[in-house]
Amino acid sequence: MRLAKMAGTRCRVDDMNAILEELRPVFYPRSIAVVGASSDEDKSGTQFLRALVKAGYTGALYPVNRSGERSCGLPAFTSLRFIPEEVDYVVVAIPRSTVLPLLDDCAAKGVKAVQLFTAGFRETSTDAGVQLEREMVTRARRGGFRIIGPNCIGIYNPSMRIPYGPLSQIGEPGSVGFISQSGGHGGRFVELGIERRINFSKLVSFGNGADLDCVDFLEYFAADPETTLIGAYLESVERGTRFMDLIRQTSKRKPIIVWKGGRSPAGSETAISHTGALSSSYSVWKGAMAQAGAIAVESLDELADTVISLEAIGPATGGRAAIVCGLGGGGGGESVLAADVFGSRGLKILPFTEKTRLGIGALLPGAGTILRNPLDLGGILPKPEVLEKVMSLVLDDENVDFLVVQEHLGKLMKTLLGDELSALNQTLVASQRARNKPLLVVAPAWARTEPALEIEDQLRRKGVPVYRSFESAAGSINRVAGYWRRLRA
Amino acid sequence: MRLAKMAGTRCRVDDMNAILEELRPVFYPRSIAVVGASSDEDKSGTQFLRALVKAGYTGALYPVNRSGERSCGLPAFTSLRFIPEEVDYVVVAIPRSTVLPLLDDCAAKGVKAVQLFTAGFRETSTDAGVQLEREMVTRARRGGFRIIGPNCIGIYNPSMRIPYGPLSQIGEPGSVGFISQSGGHGGRFVELGIERRINFSKLVSFGNGADLDCVDFLEYFAADPETTLIGAYLESVERGTRFMDLIRQTSKRKPIIVWKGGRSPAGSETAISHTGALSSSYSVWKGAMAQAGAIAVESLDELADTVISLEAIGPATGGRAAIVCGLGGGGGGESVLAADVFGSRGLKILPFTEKTRLGIGALLPGAGTILRNPLDLGGILPKPEVLEKVMSLVLDDENVDFLVVQEHLGKLMKTLLGDELSALNQTLVASQRARNKPLLVVAPAWARTEPALEIEDQLRRKGVPVYRSFESAAGSINRVAGYWRRLRA
Which of A266, A334, A370 sits opposite B184 (nearest CB)? Predict the structure, then answer.
């Protein structure tokens, strides 16, 4: 496998064990050396090492710096070559002028993977930068190791307690694999994932992709049994045909969501200088993506919302929504908004059947209750047993495939204690589980307090997607429905 | 004027003093009676009164309830008729079955304006509801007073310390007038306004608009010297020709932003039951709005962003942006995103001139700095005097009409003290003021802490618009630019 790679040919997607084996030291290193970690806390290398220590990485850690001074409480080495044990993975955070000799050390030491935080290569669009990057790859081939980067943050693997660069916080291990050409977007997704319980199998920021690039990582995630859903932020793809083949083959088994940076002419110019690669016309790209079965998004929030919707909306879920607004306050204007937003995004909000209307009317008498879909509870907060019956009626309606409930957590918590609100949500979850129709919650971003965020998190832990707005819910549900539709076709 | 109204004719827009006089008791009542305010704290009437007391309304307040029990520390009356002083404005929060006799009391007492929180009229689509609403208007005409509502929250006037219904918090008085058919959206805009320093002259939620409707309030705001910018959330307009004439005439002097609810067929159905009025096809509406000079938006956030952009982007501002990312952290991916988002929304990001590039290159050497627009500072945090020079160069660039700076406040505050960050922002503001080109800040919604929000607020108080995302900045700037373009044409 390694030889085949070095000879310039590429593995096939059915050769899955080979790619898993090839990149095992990248994602599951038994030991990591951080070159550039010293006693200076402000140095990037020190920050990478500190995060590894803080996150509780269980493998061996070796700081390397010129003076051999201790870093983050660990004894350091003046050269990689002096480390007595085997080193799988090397983090490089030293000036670019000193990188080439280090790569020779890596070869001598027999390391398997080298990640370069160091920048100043092809992305500068200078001859010197391009030349240096090329020379690095040559030495890696010769030395028998792979390069991640340069100009990147590298790997995040929660199951190995490997944090994302200097960001020590680690989320729960999960099944989302993410590939990012941008270190910043990758980091933001790690943070957003922790907040919204999007749990990663692995995530990688690969920067310039001098050696390992998006095609390699896509091959890996396609093969990886820990990954069931793949996301990517890409500014450019060099091996386009192979990339499209991979998307086509993989998207049948694992949904793939792609956020393309450098879509507009101005953005495209910027992408060239960001990671040094040429991006193609966005409309061509987008059409090709859809044909190949990938889901295109245009921002990190859209990406996150789509991941969350994929977890709730299955291939058998239809596009007919029931919407309930005004639980505990407001509701009229929000109902109109919900109908506008869902209706304009290809989803259906059909009237409830007469049976449902009569049933709800009997449970919630009074002029304020308008028996339509969206159902506006108009500030009424029914008792849990009544709410359970209302939700059951709505979920049992033959015109309803999934239920969206708007919860103004801030307002609700003015009326209810936290425990009461938890119980109310438990009622919703129970009604839904008994019927096997997805329940989704829209909790507006405004008026968020710590206790409200805790309630939100409780919902997430019960597997209920929580969105910030009707727009984000409807947009992502529509994208997911389109994905399943194309897959069936 | 009043007679003319009662005879069914309508005032002309140049008859400004008349409409201001007519609605003076609505917006500047010298005394308010709250019918339905009692010792029961959960009653809506009590909540309205409590908010008036808490907000510090300076006029006379009279609770009215059947048993004459004190409310919010004030002596109450068993009937409106027993109040010894004059009553300008009456808030009604009693069951709908008791409303008609109350209106007779209002007539007997000589009140000028009656606002009904009470619902259950035309919006129920029942004969009884429609009939009752019609009868109310008849009695108001006969009694010589105006009705706001029913099914609404009524007036918010910061200069009079009149809060928005039960919401006691009051923002600073300003010059934005807002008309809302939805009480919920109106309330949300009040809250958002306080958060984002959108300061209102007045705001009104008019619900079913049985008597005073959006045309009346638009006439008022067109005439009101305190109002320089008008916003509206509307689900329907009954006097369409008059409404369009008013928009056409007024938008030349005061920008008008309209958010239309009930755009999709489903939303339109819902709007009927929300405030009882029929809404027209959205595409027709949108085209007519643009022709008449109004700015159409589709959510409250778009509305708020557009108000904010109108305050920064003037008729003479061109559409060429300079964007600075990566101040204090990240930057590459964000720069690509910024270029994508601005580029795809009709704005221009031209390359800097050679003079600018050479100047910045001399100030910020190093490979990480990419001398493009967007300018990616790539995590560099220049000293204030250097930053001031960089910003001056950018602002002086002949290809730049306005400057957008992305600030990750959370990240910046890990590096800087709050005071240092304030000083840095002060530097930005000073550079901009000297050049008279707008400065706008994009501060992502994530990683917001109390100190970061305080910094955001400092920027707002200095007149710098702060947006949550590049999308919201670019979208609203583009809408505002379109408004000025149409105005010139």
Answer: A334
Chain A partners within 8 Å of B119 (Cβ)? 367-368, 378
Calculate how close chain A gets to B215, using CA atoms only, in Å: 19
Q: Does A14 touch chain B (CB under 8 A)?
A: no
Residues 221-260 of B with CB under 8 A from A: 233, 235
Contacts A120 to B, Cβ<8 Å: 367-368
Per-residue model confidence as pLDDT tens digits over A54-68: 999 999 999 999 999
Average pLDDT over residues B337-341: 93
Helix, strand, coil in percent for chain A, rounding step 5: 45, 15, 35
Radius of gyration, CA atoms only, chain A: 26
The ipTM assigned to this model is 0.84
Read off the pLDDT of residues A270-327 as tens digits, 9 standing for 90 and up.
Answer: 666 666 654 557 777 888 899 999 999 999 999 999 999 998 999 988 999 999 988 8
Residues 167-206 of A with CB under 8 A from B: 180-185, 187-188, 191-192, 195
Q: What's the whole-number average pLDDT of chain B?
A: 89
Q: Which of B230, B261, B235 is nearest to B247 (CA)?
A: B230
**pLDDT at residue B283 above 90?**
no
Reported as a single tens digit per residue, the pLDDT across B139-161 is: 999 999 999 999 999 999 999 99
Task: DSSP for A287-324, please give it.
Answer: HHHHHHTPEEESSHHHHHHHHHHHHHS-TT--SBEEEE
Strand order in the sheet with A31-35: A60-64, A31-35, A89-92, A113-116, A146-148
A79 CB-contact burial (10 Å; exposed 0-12 / middle 13-18 / buried 19+): middle
- Taking the Cβ of residue B334 and every Cβ of chain A, the question of whether any pair is shorter than 8 Å is answered with yes
Pick B5 or B53 by higher pLDDT: B53
Q: State the residue for tokens 């709730």.
A: A312
pLDDT in tens, B396-454: 999 999 999 998 887 788 778 888 888 888 888 988 888 889 999 999 876 567 788 88
Take residue A169 and report the two structure tokens written for it.
Answer: 């916080």
Interface probe for A, chosen from B118, B270, B300 (most Cβ of A below 10 Å), is: B270
Q: Do B129 and A367 touch (CB under 8 A)?
A: yes
Contact A340 B267 (CB under 8 A): yes
Q: Which residues of B384-413 are buried (b: 16+ CB within 10 A; e: fewer)?
A: eeebbbbbbbbbbbebbbbbbbbbbbbbbb
Number of CB atoms found within 10 A of residue B190's CB: 26
Can the peptide bond before residue B315 be classed as cis, meaning omega within 30 degrees of 0? no
Contacts of B131 (CB under 8 A, 6+ apart): none
Q: Could A339 and B273 be called an inter-chain contact, meaning their C-beta atoms sit closer than 8 Å? A: no
How many Å apart are CA B217 and CA B206, to the nearest integer?
9
Q: Which of A182, A192, A335 sits opposite B332 (nearest CB)?
A: A182
Q: Could you identify the residue written with the tokens 């003093």?
A: B17
The token pair at B218 is 């638009």
Chain A residues near residue B271 by CB distance under 8 angstroms = 336
pLDDT at A421 > cutoff 90: no
Which two three-digit tokens encode residue B460? 């707002």
**DSSP reduced 3-state for A159:** helix
Query: Distance between CA atoms of A318 and A203, rounded to whole angstroms?
Result: 32
